[in-house]
Design a protein that fits this description.
41% strand; 169 residues; 1 helix; globular; 12-stranded antiparallel β-barrel; alpha+beta
Length: 169
């Protein structure tokens, strides 16, 4: 599927019980992301099928593999860079200092797509008139990174509550 600059897509979580997400164009589902245990997820978008898995603590990185086992890329969390198997490098960052949004930038610094996380879902908005062929992969990996950050925040909150409750007894 080709994404145009005018389109606004939304990642939604259709069931609160399952760690599954759908990317929708209006009511039409165009991609799915399903989480397994830990930091593992699979994503499907038309003919693109990916497996994502995060490793490490000090040198945390996410490995992105195609369904056939071929590497698609590697995201280095500390540097905020995604290096694809063909050598292309993309940067994941906040567009403004206090923004919750994230954008993917190409090597020249051009904004390719913006992801805006909100309660009702994550809005995806391409920012270039020319759509790079890597855009579906960037949108999937970007959503994975936002969901991963939310999962880490929730785990930290639970840990803090347990520590406080444990100290109260």
């Amino acid at each position: 599927m080709q994404v145009t600059q005018q389109e606004e897509l939304t990642w939604v979580k259709p069931s609160w019980r399952k760690r599954e997400f759908e990317l929708r164009d209006g009511e039409q589902v165009i991609a799915r992301e399903a989480w397994g245990r830990g930091y593992r997820a699979t994503a499907d978008w038309a003919t693109l099928r990916l497996r994502l898995d995060t490793h490490g603590w000090l040198k945390r990185h996410t490995v992105i593999m195609r369904d056939d086992g071929a590497p698609a890329g590697d995201y280095a969390h500390r540097q905020g860079t995604l290096t694809l198997a063909d050598g292309q490098v993309f940067r994941w960052q906040r567009p403004e200092k206090r923004s919750r949004d994230r954008v993917w930038l190409d090597a020249a610094g051009n904004r390719l797509v913006r992801l805006h996380p909100a309660r009702g879902g994550t809005t995806v908005r391409p920012e270039q008139s020319a759509t790079p062929p890597e855009l579906p992969l960037l949108i999937v990996v970007g959503h994975y990174l936002l969901a991963l950050a939310q999962q880490d925040e929730e785990a930290a909150t639970v840990g803090a509550i347990v520590a406080v409750m444990g100290g109260a007894s």
